Amino acid sequence: MKQRPTIRTERLVLRPFVPEDAPAVFRLAGDREIALNTATIPHPYLEEMAEKWIATHQDDYDANKSLTLAIDAGELVGTIGLVFTPDEDRAEIGYWIGVPFWRRGYASEAARGVIAWAFEELGLNRVHAGFFIRNPASGRVMEKIGMTYEGTLRQHHKKWGEYVDVSVYGILRADWLNSRSR
């Protein structure tokens, strides 16, 4: 097991969750808009769910499975993480930002930081992501961070009894290196 990293960007600290984050996670994740546009967050989201969820993120992380970090802009504004497929040198990135903090560029900034860390520190070859097409703001984040649209998986996910299309984006290490050299 490796120690969870702390990643610093211009305005953000991407850090391990601590138990004291539970009230903010409860408040932010409890918003129906967050649950609607994420694959796994239920609604209603109960206070004890935040405490249990944070407890699943130990001080160490397993680079063979996943990494989840708090997005801190002086206060908790959301979360970002990677789910690894180590045998293939790739990971899926996922994130959400609490509604009061939308349209401030936090998701793009956090995702850039995590992708740089994934390519520089872990030596991954590929990072990919998907978003429900009813949430085009998430797609704009993926475009801003240099990801390329790769296709749409029709009715790929079922959320609250509705089949939802998922658009898929990806970035290769070579693409990322090339964009940095410009």
Explained architecture:
The protein is α+β, with helices and mostly antiparallel strands and 182 residues long. It has a single domain (2-180), classed as 3-Layer(aba) Sandwich (Aminopeptidase). It is 30% helix and 35% strand. It contains six helices and ten strands. The protein has helices spanning 22-29, 32-36, 47-55, 106-120, 136-144, 173-180; strands at 2-3, 7-8, 13-15, 60-61, 66-72, 76-85, 90-97, 126-132, 148-159, 162-172. It has an eight-stranded mixed beta sheet with strand order 2-3-5-6-7-8-10-9, with helices on both faces. β5 and β6 form a beta hairpin. α1 crosses α3. The longest helix has 15 residues, at 106-120. The radius of gyration is 16 Å and the shape is globular. The protein starts with a strand and ends with a helix. The model has no long low-confidence stretch (mean pLDDT 93).
Question: How are the SSEs placed, and which strands pair?
Answer:
Elements: E1 2-3, E2 7-8, E3 13-15, H1 22-29, H2 32-36, H3 47-55, E4 60-61, E5 66-72, E6 76-85, E7 90-97, H4 106-120, E8 126-132, H5 136-144, E9 148-159, E10 162-172, H6 173-180
Parallel strand pairs: 7-8
Antiparallel strand pairs: 1-4, 2-3, 3-5, 5-6, 6-7, 8-10, 9-10
Helix pairs in contact: 1-3
Task: Compose a concise summary of this entry.
The protein is of the alpha+beta class and 182 residues long. Helix content is 30%, strand content 35%.
User: What share of the residues does DSSP label as strand, in percent?
Assistant: 35-45%
Number of strands: 10
State the CATH class: Alpha Beta
Q: Mean pLDDT, rounded to whole units?
A: 93
